[in-house]
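Database export, one record per block. Field names are fixed; values are copied verbatim from the stored entry.
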Amino acid sequence: MELNQDRIKLITQRRIVFVTVILFVGKFIAYYLTNSVGILTDAMESTVNVLTGFVSLYSISVAIKPRDEDHPFGHGKIESISASIEGILIIIAGFIIIIEAVKRLFYPCEIQQLDIGILIVAIAGLINYILGYYSIKIGRKHNSIALVSGGKHLQSDTYSSIGLVVGLLLLLITKMAWLDSAIAISFGSIIIYTGYKILKETTSNLMDQADFMILEKVRDILWENKSDKWIDIHNLKLVKYGDAYHIDCDLTLPWYMNIANAHKESDLVVAAISEHFKDKIDFTIHTDACYPDLCPNCRINTCAYRKHPFRKDIKWTLEKITKR
């Protein structure tokens, strides 16, 4: 039996949580074996991975619920909330790592069995990359903010793990204890920056910041499929809730068109977007009646009520179609 999109997202996140718990245990074993604050950075980030994994799992389970009276646009916004929590936790972990690393500079500890620790970190980093790739792939295919942001975080772990392994190898060769703290401070800073980027992106989603790339895509689709009866489109707005886009616009039609025909034209607008847009679309269209000032830009030659001859088309720029 073929699984639906929501079920796939839920199963994917469950698998990710299961693997991150195993990696979490492995990295803390490596830390206790080596007593390396550098390895502690990796272990701390695994703690964040586990926490955010469970938060994302909960958010996806809520986001897939159907819309109801209290949530007419659905529950999809919770994915952005969970991704924001992930960003905050990552930033906190980064600061904890840096504080611990600075303390170790003044009170160094003996490091042991570093070779075993390096091996565990390297294997965990490779698994994180594969897991992140899997999460991003499924997230983009099924339009899940939580899976995409989680996947990016997992892959950023791999990049930091590569640098960490290189630094730990230098530490193993040179025996210079201060390198351990220097490595931790460097990667603690990288972790903070990663959290900041995730938080910035998800905050924009929560505040319904306009996505101009998507708006331009919608504009291009409408212009390419423009009917002569679509005299003007304006007040175009787009908001994303989970895996669905909610689009509103005002469509100007001939003033003498009856309600049934106006509804057909609205359906053609929706069909044009839905056919060329892979994401879920919830389209609301308000129809406006035309007025004489629009005659010079109207191509309906058979119009018996025309006040001015046709002169030229006015290109639907982003500024024009989003104007009220």
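Remark 1: The CA atoms of residues 201 and 268 lie 33 Å apart.
Remark 2: The radius of gyration is 27 Å.
End of record.
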